[in-house]
């Protein structure tokens, strides 16, 4: 079998070199009993690669077990993975096999491996090193022969540095690493993916297929797709059902794809990594962008006050006054506002006179009854150094998504791109009560 045959067999669409390399690596490592770590952003299709490895290995006739570690509560994950004995905890009315026992002789896929609690990581390390484990509530050592393939959308190296993931486990899992490219890194595959998703969904739903013009596909290719292939698939399904026409142009596509996007997300990520800051996903990058925008606006206000404070008995024309008012309302970019102020700071028309140096008093020279820009600036002077906390953005986002799903954690976690346990921890951190949101 070659790469094309494997992609056809597993329904993988695209000719991107990075994608082809990932598939080829999975094919090459399949016969060799080494643990594999699949890394990539959420929604990129990491789940296909353990299936390829299993089906091309000598274990293909043995069990294949997929486990989403992020969806299992911390209190029961040991029982789920390793099994338990009757009476080992409340509710354990019978003995139960764990996933490692069920997968004996085959392959186990541990998705969202970065969500494992530290105590479970220790037990997993023992399985990797010796093939041994114990059921919860038992002192009998059992053995298992499984091929472990793990996947994660978080930076495990950063998690190791932060003490959230064991370094020895990381290197044991990382026998071979397969990197799955994000959709924004394989934009040339978007038209083929869209056609496949539209065709499949139209056949399944028994509705006519839609088509996109080349210009519409360019809009699709220029979007960043933070949700990757998963988001593209959902968009294709929405278009198929909701499109008013069976042929979509640029204007039609804009109803389903945002017209604006964070074009410098990768630059921001690289810049912050150089400063020792690591962002686990695009959402945190967005928080950083919003934080910086707020910071820039506060600094700009401070600059305007500083400029005005150095104008002894200075005057501003009405145009300059309006410029400063629009600046304070957030309607002008930095360079325009400052340039306008510098151009008018020595204007000869005596509309408004400011007593300096502390900008405490304001004298209105005309009878229009308008309010001086200084009055606006004075109101915010006490809060000029205020900074917004990134956590405020995340808290508001979590609350809004929970409200959308009436307090249900699983669908909210899916939409946010979190594991359920991660969502629970963040709710506890921010004091969010799902019951109150549901009510």
What can you see in these coordinates?
The chain is globular. The strands form four sheets. It has a five-stranded parallel beta sheet. It is built from 21 helices and twelve strands. With 439 residues, it is an alpha/beta fold. Helices cover 49% and strands 10% of the residues. About 18% of the residues have low confidence. Helix 18 crosses helix 19.
In short:
This protein has helices spanning 3-10, 17-29, 48-55, 77-82, 99-102, 118-130, 156-161, 167-173, 190-205, 214-222, 228-242, 250-253, 265-274, 282-309, 318-328, 334-344, 373-381, 390-404, 409-416, 420-430, 434-438; strands at residues 36-39, 64-68, 107-111, 132-134, 141-143, 147-152, 176-179, 211-212, 247-248, 315-316, 352-354, 362-364. The chain has 439 residues and is an alpha/beta fold.
Number of β-strand runs: 12
The 3D shape can be described as globular
Distance between the termini: 56 Å
Going by helix content, strand content and strand pairing, the class is: alpha/beta
Low-confidence stretches: 260-280, 331-388
Average pLDDT number: 78
Strand order of the largest sheet: 2-3-6-1-7
Helix percentage range = 40-55%
Radius of gyration: 29 Å
Q: Give the biggest sheet.
A: 5 strands, parallel
Q: Note the beta-strand portion.
A: 5-15%
Query: In DSSP terms, counting alpha (H) and pi (I) runs of 4 or more, how many helices?
Result: 21
């Amino acid at each position: 079998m070659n790469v094309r045959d494997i992609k056809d067999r597993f329904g993988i669409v695209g000719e991107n070199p990075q994608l082809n390399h990932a598939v080829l690596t999975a094919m090459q490592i399949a016969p060799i009993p080494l643990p594999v770590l699949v890394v990539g952003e959420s929604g990129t299709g990491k789940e296909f690669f353990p299936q390829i490895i299993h089906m091309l290995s000598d274990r293909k006739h043995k069990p294949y077990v997929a486990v989403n570690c992020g969806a299992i509560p911390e209190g029961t994950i040991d029982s789920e993975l390793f099994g338990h004995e009757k009476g080992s905890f409340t509710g354990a009315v019978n003995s139960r096999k764990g996933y490692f026992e069920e997968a004996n002789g085959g392959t186990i896929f541990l998705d969202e491996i970065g969500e494992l609690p530290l105590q479970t990581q220790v037990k997993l390390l023992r399985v990797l090193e010796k093939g041994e484990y114990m059921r919860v509530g038992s002192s009998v050592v059992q053995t298992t022969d499984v091929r472990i393939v793990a996947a994660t959308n978080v930076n495990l190296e950063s998690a190791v540095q932060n003490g959230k993931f064991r370094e020895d486990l990381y290197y044991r899992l990382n026998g071979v690493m397969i990197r799955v490219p994000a959709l924004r890194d394989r934009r040339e595959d978007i038209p083929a993916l869209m056609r496949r998703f539209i065709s499949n969904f139209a056949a399944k739903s028994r509705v006519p297929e839609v088509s996109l013009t080349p210009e519409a596909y360019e809009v699709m290719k220029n979007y960043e797709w933070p949700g990757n292939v998963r988001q593209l698939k959902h968009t294709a399904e929405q278009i198929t059902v909701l499109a008013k026409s069976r042929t979509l142009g640029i204007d039609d596509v804009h109803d389903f794809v945002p017209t604006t996007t964070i074009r410098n997300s990768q630059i921001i990520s690289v810049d912050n990594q150089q400063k020792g800051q690591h962002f686990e996903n695009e959402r945190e990058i967005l928080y950083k962008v919003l934080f910086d925008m707020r910071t820039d606006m506060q600094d700009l206000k401070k600059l305007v006050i500083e400029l005005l404070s150095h104008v002894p008995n200075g005057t501003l024309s009405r145009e300059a006054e309006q410029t400063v008012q629009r600046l304070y309302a957030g309607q002008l970019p930095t360079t325009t506002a400052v340039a306008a102020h510098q151009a008018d700071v020595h204007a000869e028309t005596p509309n408004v006179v400011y007593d300096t140096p502390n900008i405490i008093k304001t004298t209105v020279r005309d009878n229009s009854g308008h309010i001086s820009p200084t009055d606006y600036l004075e109101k915010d002077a006490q809060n000029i150094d205020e900074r917004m906390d990134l956590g405020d953005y995340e808290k508001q986002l979590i609350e809004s998504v929970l409200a959308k799903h009436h307090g249900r954690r699983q669908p909210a976690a899916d939409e946010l791109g979190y594991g359920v346990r991660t969502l629970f921890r963040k709710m506890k951190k921010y004091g969010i009560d799902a019951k109150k949101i549901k009510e």
